[in-house]
Amino acid sequence: MTVAAGIGYALLALGPSLSLFTAVISHKPFLILTLLSSTLVWLMSLIALSAVWRGFIPFKTAAWWPYALLILTSVASQEALRFFLWRLYKRMEELLDAFADRVSKPRLLITDKMQIALAGGMGHGVAHAVFFCISLLTPAFGPATYYVEKCSRIPFFLVSAMIALAFVTIHTFSMVIAFSGYSEGNRTDQYFAPVVHLAAGVLTLINLGSGGCIIGIPLLYGMAMLTLLHCGKLVWRRLTENRRQGNLY
Amino acid sequence: MEGGSILETIGHEIIGVMSPVSICMLLVVLLVYTVYNPSSAAATTTIRTAANLVYLESPSDSTAQKLEGAILNAVVFVVIITLVTFLLVLLYYYRFTNFLIYYTRFSVFMIFSVMGSSILISIIQRFDIPVDAVTFSVMLFNFTVLGTISVFSNGIPIIVKQSNLVVLGIIVAAWFSRLPEWTTWVVLVALALYDLAAVLAPGGPLKLLVELASSRNEELPALVYESRPNVGRNSGARDSSLGLLVAAGLGMSGDNNSGSVELQQLWRDGNTDNRTETRERDHFAIAVGENERTNGVEIEEVREDEGETAPLMGDGDLTERWSRRDNVDNSSDGNRVPQGNEREAMEMEEMNARGIKLGMGDFIFYSVLVGRAAMYDLMTVYACYLAIISGLGCTLILLAVCRHALPALPISIALGVIFYFLTRLLMEPFLVGASTNLMMF
């Protein structure tokens, strides 16, 4: 029974990513490699962050501002990482196009570019879910569960799985938005990802208050929905524009 | 190739190696996690293998004692491996190939029957599976015989062979992951260093072995996982894609490369023209000297690099041809067999039959590392898995650049060990502190 619960939590956090992985990514080796390397890069950034913050955690005070500072620095570093990934991707794209010319295959289509961005974003999202949720699930397979004092109605594992799902969605699709923003030079899309990421991080601060998770999680899902909608609209617009121009590159 | 974007064609060979390694690691982690959990009874009995001959770790020893004992163990283990590998080279040099093959079969039989049954029994005990002794032994015998036959025989479907090798890797890795903690870490590092020396240093035993095998144009008499490319005419173009991409990345474009494109097109079209063509083609082979506990690993890449090649028979499904390397000056006489003044100058090779080869030692010691990480926490498992896989990816990319046999352990093991300790010391307190407050970002 508890094993079922543990697997359930894991699937709650990673189920959508899993289906996306099998549907889109798994039969394109290059996308799998992109996913893996983006996960690794995110993990390295997390290790660097924790090296910086290791001395201060756990916070002695009950105040919320150290956590706010923590989230601010983390989001800032991860957004810098996103920009770095974009630069890397840009060079990769040239390489791939050159390679495609040499083996006389079509160059990268716009859908291919979006899939690469999706795989990169999913790498971040999966890394987030794995390290913040799945790796803490070990006790969930045992015979008991765990409640956090501040959120005493819902088991901790369920809460963290729900939050992880929201963050996976945000990470995955905001990468598509950001990459498309960078390539088109669209300011709104470029700033969309950091703003949503920061807002989502700040929203988890509500969980510090007693019973705050009742309010914080629906708001977080609001952010996730916003990201999804924006990404859907953006992809739809670019695809129709391309089709109208008859130009797929 | 037939349509599709290039995303589907790049990286097949990498994934072909990564997926069995991932499966092996996953199963070892599950096994270690459920059966050899430190709280369960099976873990309390430490075993004595070649890897801890000198010193048997006990939890009450001081850190200095543990470290000293672990280093001694590792040194003894590596010395034994070196001696056995040299013996292997010697036997191979004097053409005791049949002896080696039968010995390897025998050790595979022993691994499957003795170690495999011990692991199966602990699984049965752990999950209270109702099975009687007769059924168990008949099934085990069947399984063992299939596993033994599938090594070194060509009549077996490749998928059976591959899965048997993965099972073999799991069994040995699960066995090794019962070593004491300190010994495991020191032995892993020592093996990575040994691997580096044995494959790359002049006179290293594995280097000798690979050179000997390639000069005789034989398969290595050792346990090697082969990821064969999809059979068919496309496979050649497919497994050269990585090298081409890397070459493009290094800016090695030039006349030769345009020539290579030309040839690939011609070849793909099944053109039977007998003219001399230049093409670039990668050919990977990873070999290992393996015996029961000896695992050295290397990746061998035989590559015809931008040399003049002339098909012996200008047919599309031709499997052998002469290749020449770095002899552009001599190439004007075209289709003749070149005078082999270098060892690599003349190589006859099969075109489609070989893919990347990865030694069983890699499988085993990657899995040992991950299995050891699984005894601490799941978080370290993920970190180590990512580190090892990316190390393997780096090695494969280096292989496309360096074009000779490469050790597959050092990069992966180094990354794995570094990530394990970073995760354990730095990241875990941070993450647990943040997420038990429901702080995420």
Automatic annotation (TrEMBL), chain A:
Keywords: Membrane, Notch signaling pathway, Transmembrane, Transmembrane helix. It is found in: Membrane. GO terms for cellular component: membrane. It is a multi-pass membrane protein. Pfam families: Aph-1. Its main location: membrane. The chain crosses the membrane at residues 6-25, 30-52, 64-85, 116-142, 154-179, 191-208, 214-236. GO terms for biological process: Notch signaling pathway; protein processing. PANTHER family: GAMMA-SECRETASE SUBUNIT APH-1. Belongs to the APH-1 family. This is Gamma-secretase subunit APH1-like. It comes from Sesamum alatum. The lineage of its organism: Eukaryota, Viridiplantae, Streptophyta, Embryophyta, Tracheophyta.
Automatic annotation (TrEMBL), chain B:
One of its GO terms (cellular component) is gamma-secretase complex. This is Presenilin. The PAL motif is required for normal active site conformation. The lineage of its organism: Eukaryota, Viridiplantae, Streptophyta, Embryophyta, Tracheophyta. InterPro entries: Peptidase_A22A, Preselin/SPP, Presenilin_C. Keywords: Endoplasmic reticulum, Golgi apparatus, Hydrolase, Membrane, Notch signaling pathway, Protease, Transmembrane, Transmembrane helix. GO terms for molecular function: aspartic endopeptidase activity, intramembrane cleaving. Residues 309-341 are annotated as: Disordered. The chain crosses the membrane at residues 14-36, 70-94, 106-127, 133-152, 159-176, 380-401, 408-427. Residues 318-328 have a biased composition (Basic and acidic residues). SMART domains: PSN. Homodimer. Probable component of the gamma-secretase complex, a complex composed of a presenilin homodimer, nicastrin, APH1 and PEN2. GO terms for biological process: membrane protein ectodomain proteolysis; Notch signaling pathway; protein processing. It is a multi-pass membrane protein. Belongs to the peptidase A22A family. Probable subunit of the gamma-secretase complex, an endoprotease complex that catalyzes the intramembrane cleavage of integral membrane proteins such as Notch receptors. Its EC number is 3.4.23.-. It is found in: Endoplasmic reticulum membrane; Golgi apparatus membrane.
